[in-house]
Amino acid sequence: MSSTQRPVAAAGRAPARPTLEEVAALAGVGRGTVSRVVNGSPRVSEKARAAVRQAIDELGYVPNRAARTLVTSRTDAIALVVPEAETRLFSEPYFADIISGVSAELADTEMQLLLVLVRDQRERDRLSAYLRAQRVDGVLLVAVHRDDPLPGVLEQLQIPTVLAGRRGERETLSCVAADNAGGARTAVRHLLRRGCRRIATITGPLDLEGAQARLAGYQEALAEQGLDDVGQLVANGDFTERGGRAAMAELLEREPELDAVFCGSDVMAAGALQVLRAAGRRVPQDVALVGFDDSIVARHTDPPLTSVRQPTEEMGRTMARLLLAEIAEPDRARRQLVLPTELVVRDSA
Questions:
Q1: Are residues 322 and 270 in the same domain?
Q2: What burial letters (b/e) apply to 124-153, b meaning 16+ CB within 10 Å?
Q3: What is the tens place of the pLDDT at every residue in 242-266?
Q4: pLDDT at residue number 311
Q5: Positive or negative CA dihedral for 237, 239, 242, 248?
Q6: By percentage, how much of the chain surpasses pLDDT 70?
Q7: What pLDDT digit, counting tens, does each position of 297-348 carry?
Q8: Is residue 7 part of a domain?
Q9: Disulfide check for 297: which of 17, 48, 253, 266 has CB 3.0–4.6 Å away?
Q10: How many structural domains compose the chain?
Q11: Do 143 and 206 reside in the same domain of the chain?
C-alpha cells in the first residue's frame, strides 16, 4: 500500500480515520507543518498551507479536537468582546467592519469566533469567570474604555489579548489602532484651506483614547494657524446619531456663526446634518461638515459626507493575525500598530 492510500476497513467496521501522518505524506511536508496549519499558526508558507489544505480535503481529515485539547490545553476558540450596548453594535458600521475583518482572517483556521457583549458589571463578572475557566485561547477587545477593568483581568490571567485602540500612551497589551490624531489634523487642515475659521468639533466619548486623539488632532491643526481659543467650539458626543444631533444643537446655540464642523464619527455627522438642515443652514455653503470612518453612512447622506477613512476591516484582520501569533508563541513580544488614515472629499466639504 502506498503512503497516501487509505486502508480498507474490515466488513461491518467503519473506515479508519485519516491520520496527521497521512496528510503530511500526501502534502509532501512534515508532520509539524500539518500541525501548525491545523492549529492556525501563521508560521507556515502560503505554498505549504495550500498543499496541506488540499491534502486535508482529499483525505477528509478531521482533527481530533478532544485529544488535542488534552495535549495542548487549546480550545480553538477566540472571544471578540464588545463592551457596549447592542444598540451601538448594530447601529455603527465600525463594529460590523471589525467583525468582518476578524472573521475573514480566521476563515482558513480551525478557530471558532465567539461574539461577547459586556453591558454591565454582572456581564463583566460572568465573562471574567468564563475566561478564568480557560474556555478560549485568546481575546480581541473592541472599544477600550479608560476605566474598564477587563484589560487588567486579561493581563492577570495571561490570556493572549489584542485591543482595538489602546487605554493610553503606556499601553502594555498588543493593540491595533488607526491614526486618529493624524486623520483629524488632515480633516481640519482641509477645512482651513477652504477658508473656514470658526471650526467646531463634536467628539466621541472622551474615555476612549481614539476620541481623545481625534480631539487632539483637531486642536493641533487649529493651533498651527493661531486659532487656539476653541473652547466654545467643542461639544462632547457619544458616537451615536442622537448624540450628534444634541451636540450640534448645543454648538449652534453657543456659536451661531460657526462655519464648519468636524465630527468624530460619520454617524454623529449624520445627526449633525439633520440639525443644520432644520436650522436653515446649507451644507456646505453655510457650514462645511466632515465625519470620521468613511463608512457606508458617509456615502448615503445628502449631500455625501467628506470623511476620514480608517481601514476598519484591515484593523480587524490585523488584530486577528497578531492574536494568532501570540497564541502560537505566548512569549513573543507584544506589538502596537497604527494604520494610516486618509481624507475622502465629497460634497459636504
A1: no
A2: beebbeebeeeebbbbbbbbbbeebebbeb
A3: 999 999 999 999 999 999 999 999 9
A4: 95
A5: positive
A6: 92
A7: 999 999 999 999 999 999 999 999 999 999 988 888 889 999 999 999 999 9
A8: no
A9: 266
A10: 3
A11: no
Q: Model-level pTM? A: 0.78
Question: Do 286 and 305 share a domain, yes or no?
Answer: yes
Q: The domain spanning residue 24 has which CATH number?
A: 1.10.260.40
> In this structure, what C-alpha cell is assigned to residue 24?
503530511
Is 9 within a domain? no
Q: What is the CATH number of the domain that holds 121?
A: 3.40.50.2300
24 in a domain, yes or no?
yes
Residue 171, Cα to own-chain centre: how many angstroms?
17
Judged on CB neighbours under 10 Å (0-12, 13-18, 19+), 107 is exposed
pLDDT of residue 63: 66
Cell of 209: 483614547
Task: Give how far the C-alpha of residue 184 lies from the chain's centroid of Cα atoms, to the nearest Å.
Answer: 19
Amino acid letter for position 112: Q
The three cell numbers of residue 59 are 483525505
Write out the residue range of the structural domain in which residue 27 sits.
20-63
The pair phi, psi for residue 236, each rounded to 5°, is: -85, 135
Whether residue 214 is found in the same domain as residue 268: yes
